Amino acid sequence: MFVRFETPKELSTQTYEAVERARTTGKVAKGANEVTKNIERGSAKFVVMAEDVTPEEILAHVPLLCEEKGIPYGYVPSKAELGAAAGLPVGTAAAAVVDAGTAGESVEDVVKKFSALKA
């Protein structure tokens, strides 16, 4: 429903790593509500959504909001792995890189790859 394109395995792995690096040196918002707030404020630099979220309606609005605000977004297959990358002991439906910290280059690289997939 909310997944608009397929994500290759190597890009998923690179995305988890970028979120993890951004978490340790910058700021990452975790969870659908926090991510939505950061998108609406325009402070999110990159949004990542888990494909295995149920019910899917939780994230149905996120791609539309991102496109409206011009914020790049992508998907990863596992909410458990996304939660771990974001520093949580549980899975998370979505995460947003608010401040990439020293992960700036890797986040930009992931953004470029996701942009190429959407085109």
Structure, described:
The protein is α+β, with helices and mostly antiparallel strands and 119 residues long. The chain has a single domain (9-118), classed as 2-Layer Sandwich (60s Ribosomal Protein L30, Chain: A). Helix content is 48%, strand content 16%. It has helices at residues 9-25, 32-41, 62-69, 79-85, 104-118; strands at 27-30, 46-50, 73-76, 94-99. It has a four-stranded mixed sheet with strand order 1-4-2-3. The longest helix is centred in the N-terminal third of the chain and has 17 residues, at 9-25. The chain starts with 8 loop residues before the first helix and ends with a helix. The model has no long low-confidence stretch (mean pLDDT 93).
Q: Give the termini separation.
A: 19 Å
CATH level-3 fold name = 60s Ribosomal Protein L30, Chain: A
Low-pLDDT ranges: none
- What order do the SSEs take from the amino end to the carboxyl end, as H and E? HEHEHEHEH
Mean pLDDT: 93
Report the biggest beta sheet as strand number plus sense, adding barrel if it closes.
4 strands, mixed
Extended strand count: 4
Beta-strand percentage?
15-25%
CATH superfamily: Ribosomal protein L30/S12
CATH level 1 class label = Alpha Beta
Class computed from helices, strands and strand pairing: alpha+beta
Just name the CATH architecture: 2-Layer Sandwich
Across the major sheet, the strand order is 1-4-2-3
Number of domains: 1
Gyration radius over CA = 12 Å
